[in-house]
Design goal:
Order of helices and strands: EHEHEHEHEHHEEEEEHEEEEEH
Number of strands: 15
Number of helices: 8
CATH class of the largest domain: Alpha Beta
Strand order of the largest sheet: 2-1-3-4-5
CATH superfamily of the largest domain: Response regulator
Radius of gyration: 20 Å
Distance between the termini: 34 Å
Strand content: 25-35%
Shape: globular
Number of domains: 2
Structural class: alpha/beta
Helix content: 25-40%
Amino acid sequence: MAIRAVIVDDELYARQKIREFLRSEKDVDIVGEAGNGSDAIKIIRAEKPDLVFLDVQIPEPDGFGVVEALDQEPLPHIVFATAYNHYALRAFEINALDYLLKPFDQDRFRESLKRARRMIGMEKNQEDFRARIKSLIEDVRAESPYLRKFLVQSKRGIRFLKAEDVLWIEASGSYAALHTETGEHLLHETLSDLEKKLNPRMFIRTHRSFIVNLESIQEVQPYFHGESVIILNNNRRINVSRSYRENFRKILDGRF
């Protein structure tokens, strides 16, 4: 019988990549795709797949939140896709749970799929399987040194703002302006101090006045005098200055 697979990643390119890798695998049927956590939970509950390729860093909830929300028996075999650094990857290895470190190539993907074929149907002890996933989640979240939420002032008091909801950050005197789809929030912190606390796989400094969420980038265009300009998903234009150009290029090459 064919392996029923679901692909979960908020990046369209990443889903297309996995779909392309699976095209030559005659024993795998893709029965669903999702770009966020809430849709992933619905699809997995409805389709009851054998295998899920699950990106950890997806919105609302993240990949770990998806697994925590699943109450079905048995759980599908899960291959986590992640951009976490090598410290957090130890947790995947210690708990014997499979992962693909982004960016991954077809050879690494085939290794993971080969393991999945062996493991599907072998997770007889679901209690142990869930315990290993719980331990993984606790270990990875404990290892992460980066800001996951911002504490900002709102009209009603204090509000927690998720890091992934911030599209770009702009210097505003001794403050940093956090721009989201719903508005702007001020933090009494310099961009230089804030940059050290942000996940470099999610945020990139492009200019002395700007930090950009990589997920919000729609396009990069050449500009004058060796500079570039970023077009965000909301059509906001942000410069990449010459002093940050080389690092920006390296991050893009490694990320995508």
